[in-house]
Amino acid sequence: MAKVIGLGGIFFKSEDPNALALWYKTHLQVPVENWGGAAFYLNNLTPTAAAGYSVWTPMSADSDYLHPSAKSFMFNLIVDDLDGALEQVRNGGAQVIAETEDSEFGRFGWFIDPDGNKVELWQASETP
Question: What is the pLDDT of residues 86-123, one digit of tens each?
């Protein structure tokens, strides 16, 4: 029987996809390619990020985890420096959500991007 073995991508709508792609390229160095998206190759990950993994999580319709975004989804990006990344997006005009979280999985922080999407940033722990 076939099974899912990883997260292949995130696809979402934007009122101005070119401007949003440029914002992510400018403020988080997302390697946006000519076709408008980005591909992240495992051989380019830092040793810390390579310890990470992708998750898939359906949530209750009444969950407030995605608050303050009104969107019905959130995406997670692995970063090598959480504090630095949060400062970069703040400088780019994003609404940074004040609290960060430390857990056995690493450090987490959140922001609302120019399109109103809640984005979770994850600096993975040194060991999985």
Answer: 999 999 999 999 899 998 888 999 999 999 999 999 88
The pLDDT score that the predictor gives to residue 51 is 59
> What tokens were used for 14?
């934007």
Please name each of the domains of the chain with its CATH number. 17-124 (3.10.180.10)
Cα–Cα distance, 85 to 111 (Å, whole number): 10
Q: For every residue of the chain, which 3-state class applies, written as one string?
A: CCCCCCCCCCCCCCCCHHHHHHHHHHHHCCCECCCCCECCCHHHCCHHHHCCCCCCCCCCCCCCCCCCCCCCCEEEEECCCHHHHHHHHHHCCCEEEEEEEEECCEEEEEEECCCCCEEEEEEECCCC
Structure tokens at 59: 């949530």
Residues in the chain: 128
> pTM score, two decimals?
0.81
User: Which of 29, 82, 26, 25 has the alpha carbon at shortest distance from 52?
Assistant: 82
Tokens representing 82 are 């959480």
